[in-house]
Amino acid sequence: MSFVANARMYAVTPQVQAAWQELFAWVARRSGVPLRYLDHAAPAPLEALWARPDLGVVFMCGFPFASAQPQPRLLAAPVPSPPRYRGQATYCTDFVVRADRPFRSLADTFGGRIGWTVGHSQSGYNAVRHHLAELGSGGRYATWVGPLVTPRRVIDAVIDGMIDVGPLDSYVHDLLKWHEPATAAKLRTIESTAMTPVPPLIASLATPADAVARLRDSLVAAAADKEAAAILDD
Hints:
This protein is of the alpha/beta class. α1 crosses α8. The protein has helices at residues 14-31, 46-50, 62-67, 122-135, 151-160, 170-179, 181-184, 209-221, 226-233, and strands spanning 3-6, 35-37, 55-59, 73-76, 90-91, 93-98, 113-115, 143-145, 166-169, 187-192, 196-197, 201-203. It folds into 2 domains: 3-77 and 199-233, D-Maltodextrin-Binding Protein, domain 2 (3-Layer(aba) Sandwich), CATH 3.40.190; 90-196, Periplasmic binding protein-like II (D-Maltodextrin-Binding Protein, domain 2, 3-Layer(aba) Sandwich). It has a 5-stranded mixed beta sheet, with helices on one face. The chain has a 3-stranded antiparallel beta sheet with strand order 9-6-10. The chain has a two-stranded antiparallel sheet with strand order 5-11. The two termini are 30 Å apart. The chain contains 9 helices and 12 strands. α1 (14-31) links the parallel β1 (3-6) and β2 (35-37). Helices cover 38% and strands 19% of the residues. It is globular.
């Protein structure tokens, strides 16, 4: 039996998706657990993916993971390399605007149009609501545009002028800067939320415990392996 691998949440560009597939192939070889990459591209709902009983290595948003009863099997989580993560498996939401817009702070966008992804998203919805609630009554928008579903659609909506400000998963944002700098240059971050745990890689509860242990060990060992570390650099 083979198990499903998927990195849709962080397959920011075709090159990044290829790198995830290469990493998962390495994990399969090292662990001895057969994995097959399932694309499950948008607009297919992520909830349908997460409900499958044959998940081997799949990214899951932290809010659905924390809310799930029972929870899937936790494998590992990425540690993004930029300095703002301080060597921790964390991320945040960047509030991004089009680079040529006059906004200098999040407050400058109040009364305008803000985007959101889906209701179960931590970075694309729940972190946004929490951050605005902490700002008090000033954090109000005339229009909430969504569901935009994916970070890429948030990026496009900001650049095309559909929204004034959009929430962008910071790990997605940093991968975009690394692999698609021309697009990233069209965006500007005006504020960011507090850091929270980054979305983890999970396996289904039905995935055998010995396979889960081998997958987890391989993922954690990847940074120390010369071949896998080169993939992780991407």
